[in-house]
Amino acid sequence: MFTGLIEGIGKIKAIRRLHNDVRMTIGPLFMMTDCQVGDSMSVDGVCLTLTEVSGGTFSMDVSQETLSLSTLGLLRQGDEVNLERALRLTDRLGGHLVSGHVDGIGKILKKESDQRSWLIRIGINEELLHYTIEKGSIAVDGISLTVNRCGKGFIDINVIPLTGADTTILKKVIGDPVNIETDLIGKYVEKFILRDRSTRPEKTGSGVDLETLIKQGFGD
Asked: CA dihedral in degrees (12, 7, 169, 53; nearest 10)?
């Protein structure tokens, strides 16, 4: 589990094909001294496991499934990526809960400065839009961001100077793909409420359903 608060940027040192999978070696461009084999690492928002740590770099294996569902399959030696180590239970949760399981890929549609910040429009499909709300949370290449606006086929986000300096987001140009992970809690809430009633035990009056939530003011 992650927070979406990127620790820093890493550079791809090597990519080696292993049949349909890939072994990726990354060198962090900031101090990262306590990594161990078996640790989880978010790389551009994708949760991976460290398989080797040596000489200031670490390696991880990326499956064909992950390559096909994220932008990791597009990376080349020398590219930069956002890095975040897994959340510890003693850490502050400053971003939002991010699983590192990417839901899909978006595309940068517009990028413009607004005084010191940047406004970025990202095109996403209707399936991902279903799980986005204005002022809700979303992870873009692993970065915890707030959705300013939802439109037909896109979302708008705002990037403050600190986030822009500490991540790769402002290095993206129009047309570049980005990894998208929608709000984890929203997906679970929907599943619990809308799952097939025929598979649920008979209602005893103690359960929570959509009607109950609406009566309590959670909905239209």
From this structure: 10
Tell me what the pLDDT averaged over the chain comes to.
90
Instruction: Please report, as a single letter, which amino acid is at residue 31.
Output: M
102 and 173 in contact (C-beta within 8 Å)?
Answer: no
Domain 104-185 of CATH type 3.40.50.2300: no
Nearest residue to 119 via CA among 84, 166, 77, 169: 169
Q: How far apart are CA 143 and CA 116, in angstroms?
A: 19
**CATH class name, domain 8-85:** mainly beta
Dist. CA 104–CA 45, nearest whole Å:
11
Residues 6+ apart with CB under 8 A from 187: 131
The residue type at 45: G
**Start-end of H helices in the chain:** 64-69, 126-129, 161-166, 184-194, 210-215
Side chain identity at residue 161, one-letter code: P
Cα-flanking dihedrals φ and ψ of residue 208, to 5°? -120, 125
pLDDT digits (tens, 9 = 90+) for 129-139: 999 999 999 99
